[in-house]
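Weekly structure sync, notes
Attendees: PL (lead), two postdocs, one rotation student
Agenda item 3: pending single-chain targets
PL asked that the sequence for the first pending target be pasted directly into the notes so everyone works from the same version. It is reproduced below exactly as submitted, 200 residues in total.
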Amino acid sequence: MKADLDLVDQAKRGDQMAFSELVRRHQKTLYRVLWKFTRDQILAEDMMQEAFVKAYQKISTFEGRSSFRSWLIRIGINTATNALRARKKHHSIDEVHASGPGEMERSLIYKDLQKLIQEELLRLPDRQRMALSLRIFEDLGFQEIAVLMECPYDTAKANYRHGLLKMKASLGRLDWVKNINELEDDRVIKLKEYILEVEG
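Predicted structure, written out during the meeting:
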């Protein structure tokens, strides 16, 4: 199997089949990153397609200083960030009320938590949201996050820390968010891990 860099070299020479192979190899990863970043299936799919179009158009500028995967993810996240910024709306977290998980349907609790976290993520500055999403949802190390963000290691770590502190402060205002022990289905496992990370 050819290495990504070999396929990139072929794509630079106009080999569309080589680029199609790169798409095949990385579309699942890119979609997963974008879905976790946007929490919107349709938007993630649209941004994935747009990112591949941009990558194809800019393939000649790829210099190999990072992996093709990292370069592609950076294009995808930048594209998604611009899209989210364009449709961003301000909602007050203070409008969210709940009397406790014992009085709510499991699916509604999950939906409310998911919506709450997405709203709070969108309130973060772009680079803090990017660092937080890549660290928690993709389990990337700060070295790779720094490459994706095109910034020093310490800057990536600082953006993550500041974003984490803001999320912790916001989520801490809702006590019922912490009490989700009954929600043991697959949909909320990552969500619970995320909340524990925020509270850690």
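Discussion points:
- The chain has two domains: 4-87, 93-199.
- Residues 90-105, 181-188 have pLDDT under 50 and may be disordered.
Action: rotation student to compare against the earlier draft before next sync.
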